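The protein record passed on below.

***
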Amino acid sequence: MRAFLFLTVCFLFVLLGAPFLGPDAGESQNWVFWQLRVPRVLCAFLAGGTLAVCGAVFQALFRNPLATPFTLGTASGAALGATLLLFLAPSAAPFFPNFPALSPLVLAAFAGAIGSLALIFAIVRAARQTSTSDILLAGVAVSFLYSSLIMLLQYLSDPTQTVRMLRWTMGGLDRGGTYSAVLTLLPWVFPAMGILLVHHRELDLFCMGDEIAQSRGVPVRKMRRTLLVTASLALAAVVSVCGPIGFLGLMVPHMMRNLAGARHRILLPSAFLGGALLLILCDTFARIAIFPDEIPVGILTALLGGPFFLTLLLFRRSPSAG
């Protein structure tokens, strides 16, 4: 674990400090560094870390190693909310200069994510089912429904707007690599990460089963919903800035469990650093692979995550997330 932290710090130092290690850079190089590279790396750091932590939390809450915000439907709900805003008000500013954290796109993503959770729990309540597997199945159904609605909105839009929506749904940091995007994420990401980390004991108990958690004094239903809403708000902020970037929340928690163990007091910070590092690496490759064009980073994470998902599905040994 210490080696991983050391490598992460070294990587970020080289990535951000490279312009200061060589000959004096000109004014244009300094502008590119401070106005393009730094905010983009910071945005990738916050987004990747948040996606990984949310994945670890969802896997613990549902005791399922394949659970992610995307399989539950909250990410699709946030994407639908943002896409609906792009469809109804294409000229709306994505970020407010003075209050970027409360911009229309962020609020639309919040509404979509929370609406998705409300719909999932309403379906489960109507079916009189309360098991975690039933919640996951309802989430998968809602995710498919929202994905279909997103495609419908793309079809009904004019060609220019359709291209804009399609590019956004691929996920990427090209639009999010600004200081406004970083300021959009900060007020939501760090409080949410703090709340989730404070409840590391409850997450450990959830991995052992609802009965054990309840016997240890955890209000299971209330705590599960509180942690789901907290993670979903942070996730919605990321989706509003970067679009839906899948599979980070699936891959990184499993990698970090092998390195740092299953206790969430260590796992959550490790997952944050691992997710941040992986997204920075993917974004760096996306920018240079077909230069001067750019591959949407969501495509790269899907190319990595698809085989990873199948590997877990084929070789997992137990339903426990730990």
The two ends are 18 Å apart (CA to CA). The longest helix spans residues 27-62. Residues 318-322 have pLDDT under 50 and may be disordered. DSSP finds 14 helices and no strands in the chain.
